[in-house]
Amino acid sequence: MSSRYHQVYAEWQRDPEAFWATAAGAIDWIKPWDRVFDPEYGVYGRWFVGAECNTCFNAIDRHVERGRADQLALIHDSAIVGTVKKYTYAELKREVVALASVLRNQGVGKGDRVIIYMPMVPEAAFAMLACARLGAIHSVVFGGFAARELATRIDDAQPKLIVSASCGREPGRTVAYKPLLDGAIEMARHKPERCLILQREQQRCELTEGRDIDLADAMARERAAGANVDCVPVAATDPLYILYTSGTTGQPKGVVRDNGGHMVALHWTMQNEFGVSPGEVFWAASDVGWVVGHSYIVYAPLLAGCTSVMFEGKPVGTPDAGTFWRVIAEHGVAALFTAPTAFRAIKGQDPQGAFVPKYDLSKFRTLFLAGERADPETLKWAEQKLGKPVIDHWWQTETGYPITNNPVGLGMLPVKHGSPGVPMPGYDVRVLDDAGNPVQAGMLGNVVIKLPLPPGCLPMLWNADQRFRDAYLREFPGFYKTADAGLVDQDGYLFIMARTDDIINVAGHRLSTGGMEEVLAEHRDVAECAVVGVADDVKGQVPCGFVVLNAGVNRDPAEIEREVVELVRERIGAVASMKRVVTVKRLPKTRSGKILRATMQKIADHQPWTMPATIDDPAILEEIAEALRGRDSV
Ligand code: COA
Ligand code: AMP
Q: Which residues, other chains included, contact 434 with Cβ-Cβ below 8 Å and sequence gap of 6+?
């Protein structure tokens, strides 16, 4: 089949407003918009201004009302606990209404913030949808973050209430959430009035009197009472959620998502980009704490009337490298979306792909990879072993859905290994040099998107318009800066090469080395530090810390390094995967005092490097190389 991509992209280019107005026809609106796009409203304009809608209604109620009540909406598969729970659209509605009723009884209403700090349990999705139903704004915090990260988000979002659980399950260990939650509330200046706690059988916790409520009990009471909670009309431009993502400092950025544009864009992507029809099963193997989880575990599949799989487990070790194929076969998954790391892990454990033929993958059509660079070797391995198309695509927390992709629903374009595809409608992607001039095809530069951003992308940062302008809009006037460097080839395919800031991508998790440096600097014996991302076979990148000790410290450096590793785990969380810290005498700097992180990274990666002309003292780089020798981890 020849692809309709070029025709559809040209349609969008001709008249973006008409394009999105047509796409908006797939959504149920309470009140239609006054303007599809208002360039005067907000920082760079807003979509569907004047419209009213409700995201929960579109994700659940309308399917229940229109023939999908008995279709499965959500399948929760825990490869760790060994359970599978299934919810039809009618059952999902019942759960979400019960939880919305509990929230409403606690005074949560339109515009109130609710933090959700949960493992991969169905209740996390119920809580998100219950907030959407009430017009409340949810902010999901990834369970792998430690108390201080949670506290920072509590202070920024100022939630009325937090929904959490007694524990999470990681292979071989149970992670108690309650002490982290209590620690975070203790640390935060803002104190939420209530916490709803899901008691998981694997490890229950003590509830804090006067503050905590047992979530399951409270929901059961509402169900028994036949509670009814109508969907609250909200403005299309009202926030649906805040999702914090790494910035260049320890203070994360609160990416805001609106209701109207978000629904329109996500719904459009399901059929056109992912090629998945209503009634089919879609599986995003990610976590609800990340944007992939928001968009493609919860909202997009439900908006499109699909069945979504929510998976608690890992691609390997729960119990083996065949888990993904087991889930695909057992639930009839049509398309899987995950990070390349997952496939590097599977390939590492089962290089021959011996587990693949053990399962019936006949319903499975396409594998989508995103979140980090997909190395061509892994991509080809997956193509070969699965015998299905493997599609790399590129986006960010800020955009909420793919910027570039290979839109299989419009007819697949030829795959170029190493490229995450071509720009999707909505995105005018350009590559500029540092002075803001366009570079020629094939030349490396700053990847930017011409404003306005399409519906569904962040319209602002939570309570931080100026930070939004400074971080994304100031450097290249008229464009949104993605902070990725890359090139567009003669055929219009994008290639992403690196970040231009201090963000690193660890197992598909976005982390700030700047944030980690702030933690290293907190250690009493550390005078100076630097963190760089070094190459890792499975996780793509892992952080490596360099510390210079205070004068006069004569403790064993190995002991200090271990303490620093522990400090990062305690302050940021296990997810930072900081396992390697090296003590050095001095850090290499330019004559103006800038730390030469890029050169240090090359040395740590055993890549060729050249002596920077601006270096203060060339001998330091040899000291760094020497300190790294034989030091893979502490
Ligand atoms: N709650 C508590 N701890 C968590 C957690 C959570 N929700 N998620 C991860 N962690 C912990 C892990 O247990 C691990 O701790 P450890 O250092 O004690 O082993 C640490 O954080 C790092 O986790 P992770 O990055 O997941 O590494 P891993 O070694 O446990 O697993 C992979 C490696 C490749 C199997 C795993 O990263 C993976 O499945 N990646 C798929 C990609 C993905 O989901 N990306 C998300 C964006 S799309
Ligand atoms: P996140 O906000 O966590 O989704 O991370 C976004 C960043 O991950 C991007 O800015 C890129 O640096 C990187 N990224 C995401 N998808 C890809 C991809 N397909 N190829 C290369 N890098 C990617």
A: 445, 446
Find out whether the beta carbon of 176 lies less than 6 Å from any atom of ligand 1: no
Q: 64 and 154, same structural domain?
A: yes
Give the per-residue pLDDT at 315.
98
One domain for residues 177 and 238: yes
Flag whether 299 is in a domain. Answer: yes
Instruction: Give residue 634's pLDDT band: very low, low, confident or very high (50, 70, 90).
Output: very low
HSE, side-chain direction, 13 A CA sphere, residue 529: 30
- Our count of domains for the chain comes to 2
Q: Is 291 in the pocket of ligand 2 (CB under 6 A)?
A: yes
* Domain membership flag for residue 341: no
Which ligand sits closest to the CA of 447?
A: 2
Output the domain CATH number for residue 65.
Answer: 3.40.50.12780
Residue 60 lies in domain: 5-313+393-486
* Residue 390 near ligand 2, beta carbon < 6 Å: no
Is the pTM above the cut of 0.90? yes
pLDDT of residue 629: 85
Is omega for the bond preceding 425 within 30 degrees of 0, making it cis? no
Q: Is the beta carbon of 574 within 6 A of some atom in ligand 1?
A: yes
Residues of the chain with pLDDT > 90, as a percent, come to 94
User: Which atom belonging to ligand 1 lies closest to the Cα atom of 284?
Assistant: 48
Decide: 372 in ligand 2 pocket, CB within 6 A.
Answer: yes
Which of these three, 486, 519, 553, is where a domain ends? 486
What burial letters (b/e) apply to 298-307, b meaning 16+ CB within 10 Å? bbbbbbbbbb
Question: Is 154's pLDDT higher than 90?
Answer: yes
Residue 241 within any structural domain of the chain = yes
| Domain membership flag for residue 327 | no
Task: Give dist(CA 246, CA 254) in Å, integer.
Answer: 9
If you take atom 44 of ligand 1, which residue's CA is the nearest one?
Answer: 286
Are 482 and 570 members of one domain?
no
Do residues 110 and 232 touch, judged by C-beta distance below 8 A?
yes
**Cα 168 from chain centroid?**
19
575 CA distance to ligand 1 middle (Å): 6
